[in-house]
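Hi support team,

I've been running sequence recovery on a batch of backbones for a student project. Most finish fine, but this one hangs at about 90% for roughly twenty minutes before it completes. I'm not sure whether the input is malformed or the queue is just slow. I've pasted the structure tokens below so you can try to reproduce it. Let me know if you need the job ID as well.

Thanks,
M.K.
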């Protein structure tokens, strides 16, 4: 790693910075209300493919998100209507044609209306979901009207228009042995999901009501309405697709790491793989599809509290943008203006109940922006959870430096908790003493170090974060003389601990500075990992201790 590499890394991030900035700078319509969507999830299997039977079995056990109404049908598995080897097939089109031919949309709408075999329908489920969907504000408003809760029940009609079908395709399913991964057991796969929306417009809704069978209808009228229902076509439209790589594995019990880990069976790990395919698909769809983004308002500040929770699928460290609606005299309209970013803490309310005006709140913490006020709109804006830091270390150990931080909050329930990977390099002149040399040698030595660790973010102010961390790493050294003497690099392990202070330039761009300490572990080793019986800082005098850091961090 050198200065040129650091420059290339930094400049390659510039277009990405622009893309992130657009999410705030570009004016766009943001709905101020939120209605729950419903999902019908299906698994598309390809007979004869690896482990398809096992995946089908586990798919039927997936835990459905509390965020969506469950519109799953009795049969959630179907055979793929095309072959992977047919390159002329467009999968999303072939799937849509299959769903249309099988009248899946009509089956979903029938579930909404509790349609029975004799053709009778009721509004019970629609009314129930309308009540459950209502927010405290809607509940309080409804109580001031003559209709009261009946008004909330009617809200269920608008929910039908948010009915979606999500088709999952698990491909390249392999256990670790098949994937040729040593010392591990478990699974890996690729999941592609296809999202379709049921087009239940007013015209189709009116046609459905023409099929409504009443108790007083004569047998002839009932037969006519049954025939109308059979002829009713409910279209679907393709929305988007998403693809992710999945892995659910563990170190084998006979390995060093495996001995420290509670072992799971391959069957349990396969269930984790399929569940993560569902969870990750929904998380990434929620990043770009408006109907899946939760909207609410700030209920209290100090601390920030919002009346959303498990009912909306909220998890620790989920990110929300905050907006204030302001009047624009030029356009004579009210538009949302960005005010900040908040994230959920581990205090997630269990609000899976009907609104009463006293719905519990979840607690958030602010990571960017200005002072927030009650009534501001909050809008779900999922991030990938990856942060890239490019910088320069200064000290006895220094040089160009890079680090990747991965946010773990939504997986383990701890806010602002990270695992990181780091790497750096330096070329420096040393008069060093290698054990096989009869005298000291002076030359430029190339050092490469990399490591892994854990970090905890602490918000000192709205736009300032301190992130203490601790990790373990390995540094290697190479030069012409070292290569001649040992035919390979020298190396040593080190502990590294310190803290980085980051100041926001934008909500996703930070200027970062830090102080850390490199503490050596054990003696130096040669290319065969043989202990040389001499410490690293005795070969390379004083190569340990404090280092400073300056850099730029981009968050995705």
């Amino acid at each position: 790693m050198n200065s040129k590499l650091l420059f290339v890394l930094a400049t390659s991030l510039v277009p990405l910075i622009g893309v992130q900035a657009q999410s705030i700078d570009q004016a766009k319509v943001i709905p101020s209300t939120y209605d729950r969507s419903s999902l019908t999830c299906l698994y598309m299997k390809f007979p004869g493919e690896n482990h398809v039977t096992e995946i089908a079995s586990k798919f039927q056990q997936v835990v459905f998100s509390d965020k969506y109404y469950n519109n799953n049908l009795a049969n959630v598995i179907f055979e793929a209507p095309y072959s992977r080897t047919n390159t002329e097939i467009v999968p999303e089109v072939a799937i849509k044609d299959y769903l249309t031919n099988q009248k899946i949309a009509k089956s979903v709408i029938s579930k909404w209306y509790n349609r029975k075999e004799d053709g009778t329908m009721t509004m019970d489920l629609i009314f129930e979901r309308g009540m459950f969907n209502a927010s405290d504000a809607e509940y309080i408003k409804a109580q001031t009207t003559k209709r009261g809760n009946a008004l909330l029940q009617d809200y269920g009609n608008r929910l039908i228009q948010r009915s979606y079908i999500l088709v999952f395709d698990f491909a390249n399913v392999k256990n670790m042995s098949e994937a040729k991964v040593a010392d591990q057991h478990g699974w890996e796969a690729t999941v592609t999901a296809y999202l379709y929306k049921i087009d239940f417009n007013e015209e189709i809704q009116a046609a459905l009501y023409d099929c409504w069978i009443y108790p007083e209808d004569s047998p002839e009228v009932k037969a006519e309405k049954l025939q109308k229902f059979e002829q009713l076509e409910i279209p679907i439209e393709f929305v988007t697709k998403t693809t992710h790589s999945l892995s659910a594995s563990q170190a084998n019990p006979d390995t060093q790491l495996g001995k420290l880990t509670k072992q799971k069976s391959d069957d349990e790990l396969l269930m984790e793989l399929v569940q993560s395919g569902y969870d990750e698909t929904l998380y990434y769809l929620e990043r770009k599809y408006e109907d899946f983004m939760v909207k609410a308002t700030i209920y209290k500040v100090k601390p920030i509290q919002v009346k959303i929770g498990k009912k909306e699928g909220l998890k620790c460290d989920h990110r929300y943008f905050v907006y204030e609606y302001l009047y624009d005299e030029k356009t004579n309209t009210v538009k949302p203006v960005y005010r900040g970013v908040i994230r959920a803490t581990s205090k997630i309310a269990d609000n899976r109940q009907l609104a009463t005006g006293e719905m519990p709140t979840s607690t958030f913490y602010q990571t960017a922006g200005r002072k927030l006020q009650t009534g501001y709109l909050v809008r779900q804006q999922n991030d990938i959870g990856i942060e890239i830091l490019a910088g320069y270390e200064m000290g006895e150990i220094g040089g160009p430096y890079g680090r990747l931080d991965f946010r773990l909050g939504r997986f383990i329930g701890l806010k602002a908790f990270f695992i990181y990977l780091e790497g750096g390099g330096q070329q420096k002149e040393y008069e060093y003493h290698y054990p096989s040399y009869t005298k000291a040698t002076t030359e430029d030595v190339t050092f490469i170090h990399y490591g892994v660790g854990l970090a905890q973010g602490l918000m000192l102010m709205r736009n300032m974060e301190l992130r203490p961390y601790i990790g373990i790493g390995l540094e290697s050294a190479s030069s012409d003389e070292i290569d001649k003497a040992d035919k390979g690099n020298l190396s040593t392990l080190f502990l590294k601990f310190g803290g980085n202070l980051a100041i926001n330039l934008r909500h996703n761009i930070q200027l970062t500075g830090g102080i850390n300490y490199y503490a050596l572990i054990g003696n130096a080793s040669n290319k065969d990992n043989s202990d040389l019986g001499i410490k690293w800082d005795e070969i390379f005098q004083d190569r340990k201790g404090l280092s400073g850091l300056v850099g730029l961090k981009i968050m995705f």
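--
Follow-up from support: It reproduced on our side and the slowdown came from queue contention, not your input. The mean pLDDT is 89. No action needed from you.
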